[in-house]
# Entry
Amino acid sequence: MTTRETILELVAAWHANDALRAGGFFAPEGRYQESGREAVCGRAAVVAHFTRFFRDGPPWRFEIDELVVEGERAALTYRFAVKGDGEGWDERAGCAMVRLREGLVAEWREWRLV
# Structure
């Protein structure tokens, strides 16, 4: 699987609320870090993090705007939104740097765009 395919399949697993499948795209020692938060380290911790969010979090959306890939590195811009009060969505833009090793995510690090 290419780097692009890995990232798109990971996001598809998120959209399906499939924490176990999403975590399977991470290396055993992989790191996942959302903007402004501590890194989640290790595949088991990443699966637990996704499981809690999918189970306890609000309705959400994640859409990639642009994805640039070079070898096992990628940069992407995205929009993340959570269901707000009433009918509205609270949306924010962000970017992520992704590094794969041997086809698995070694690091996913996000920054919020203002």
Observations:
- Residues 3-113 form a domain with the Nuclear Transport Factor 2; Chain: A, fold (CATH 3.10.450.50).
